[in-house]
Amino acid sequence: MIETTKFDIPRQAESALYINGEWQRGLTTITNINPSDISTPIGNFAQASEQQLQQAIEAAIEAQPLWEKTPLEQKQKILHAIGDELINRCDELGRLLSQEEGKSMAEGRGEIFRAGQFFQYFAAEVLRQIGDLATSTRPGVSIEINREAVGVVAIISPWNFPTATAAWKIAPALAFGNSVIWKPANLTPASAVALTEIIHRQGLPCGTFNLILGSGNTIGNALIHSAQINAVSFTGSVEVGRQVATATSPNFVRCQLEMGSKNALVIADDADIDIAVEATIMGSFSGTGQKCTASSRLVVMDNIHDAYISALIKRIESLKVGHALEDDVFMGPVVDGHQLTNNMLWVDKAHQHGAELAIGGHQLTLAHDGFYMAPTLFLNTKNQWDINQEEIFAPMACVIRVHDLDEAIATVNDTRFGLTSGIITQSLSSSTLFKQQTQTGCVMVNLPTAGTDYHVPFGGRKQSSFGPREQGQYAKEFYTIVKTTYQRAY
């Protein structure tokens, strides 16, 4: 029997919105579906009105100067306490996350732990806010360069990493003195409420942090069109990212967009097959393929193709698909019925193109009534086909056969996206050339394309990203404004 999470969210339908330091009821509610078993929903969660959004904006405007002036050590302790609680409760909250999003328990727990690390890292960054001095060209004039908070930051986060992605935005926003209005995805509200409860207990000035649940068409749209916010950090699709950029530009609101990708993993002729197969499994099928860093294109050189494909199919056959809370499950369900329907349409398109189905390609019927899809591999595909050009967000990978490294790199770059790319090779010269010539923001050598560290910059090129990088010290480029001060002493 599956033990479901008993996380106490007494608010749920009554008051899951957090505005100006208080929990509030919503205009309506939505039901949070469990994708592993639709007969056991997580609960009902409030949906905000536009008036409540405006209340949150006004509260954030009022609170921001107070939070920015809060002593550094106090800010540092608050952020570190949030990180500590996330890490200490990663089993409990990871179970909750897996229950509503569908990723395996191991991945859910790992995501909560990583979210805690983001808060701990930026707690330390609070104490590293050191300005610069410069020598003026004019005698007797001194110059100081400092950074100040942007102001009110709107954060719009996705459902596939509901806590980690939110954490890597919320933590630096707070660390650098901004107030926050967070609109998470409607598919994963329970994780948002859980994180908000942790933040609430730290005693930030009322209005510093606000949680607004609602649809993108209403609340999200109103948020990005507001002239009263100062910055928007968004993670989601290219189409919605373009809408965010269009909406914010008339108000000159700074914008940071992390969008889609179509990442490629190159399997070189000299690759260690075991390493190549494991990198593929983790990159293509972990998280049910629902990652912006997933390796959905497998670019395989001729001489290793057959041996690699044979080993990969055997490994895929061993993967356990099931309820996210079951022991030893590698791959849970996709997030909802709409996503599953889209995934199967992409399978149909692959067949229409003439791709060869090696394994999978079908919906699974398991003991629990959920949205399960078999891990899927297509062979003999062409890079120009739309299954290799559009982000699918499914446990589905397509093999593209190439002759040599030059063709492999050209194939990797032949896309409108540019988030991550990877190569499996034992050649230093091949890896060096690959690192130099691939047009992606992140490059992996002998590693899965999915999986990044929290203390270094993250982001892509082309239509994958827009604006300053996220994470690490580079986050300050978005969450702060540079002020240059000239002074003459008399």
Structural features, described:
37% of the residues lie in helices and 21% in strands. It contains 14 helices and 22 strands. The chain has a 7-stranded mixed sheet, with helices on both faces. A 6-stranded mixed sheet has the order 9-8-7-10-11-21, with helices on both faces. Strands 5-6-22 form a 3-stranded antiparallel sheet. A hairpin with a 5-residue loop joins strand 5 and strand 6. It is globular, with a radius of gyration of 23 Å. The relative contact order is 0.13.
Distance between the termini: 79 Å
Radius of gyration: 23 Å
The description of the largest β-sheet is: 7 strands, mixed
Treating each run of at least 4 consecutive H or I residues as one helix, how many helices?
14
Kindly report the spatial arrangement of strands forming the biggest sheet: 14-17-18-13-12-19-20
Q: Shape, please? A: globular
Question: Helical percent range?
Answer: 25-40%
Identify low-pLDDT runs. none
Strand content: 15-25%
Number of strands: 22
Give the overall average pLDDT: 96
Output the structural class.
alpha/beta
Topology:
Layout: E1 17-19, E2 22-24, E3 28-32, E4 43-47, H1 50-68, H2 72-88, H3 90-101, H4 105-126, E5 132-135, E6 141-149, E7 152-156, H5 164-175, E8 179-183, H6 189-200, E9 209-211, H7 216-225, E10 231-235, H8 238-248, E11 254-258, E12 263-267, H9 273-284, E13 295-301, H10 302-317, H11 337-353, E14 356-359, E15 363-364, E16 372-373, E17 376-379, E18 396-402, H12 405-413, E19 420-424, H13 428-437, E20 442-445, E21 465-466, H14 476-479, E22 480-488
Parallel strand pairs: 7-8, 7-10, 8-9, 10-11, 12-13, 12-19, 13-18, 17-18, 19-20
Antiparallel strand pairs: 1-2, 3-4, 5-6, 6-22, 11-21, 14-17, 15-16
Helix pairs in contact: 2-4, 3-4, 3-6, 4-5, 9-10
